[in-house]
# Entry
Amino acid sequence: QVQLVESGGGLVQAGGSLRVSCAASGSIFSINGMSWHRQAPGKQRDMVAYISSGGSTSYADSVKGRFTISRDNAKNTVYLQMNSLKPEDTAVYYCNAVLRTAPGPFSNYWGQGTQVTVSS
# Structure
């Protein structure tokens, strides 16, 4: 069984910084891409940042230059460093991992989400 557990969310003032983490645990054979997504009330869930197994990254236009995604493959953990936060960054942040528990096809796994609130 695989679990993705996020941590590090909270309340921060506009212009501040926050780092969220997501650790994957359980019977993991290998992890491919990892990503962060967010969902604000009444809106769809959108991808914020992606990092490949080799470390290549991509970002949503709205966070480019402010957010940085990274991963520690030895710890099966992905991070999202968020700087210059804005009230519109307020959302529940979810991590996603494409992984497999044995040789074979990969599957999508989601964390439970962590709330990030940016006050103006």
About this structure: Residues 58 and 64 are 9 Å apart (CA to CA). The first strand starts at residue 2 and ends at 7. The two ends are 41 Å apart (CA to CA). The mean pLDDT is 97.
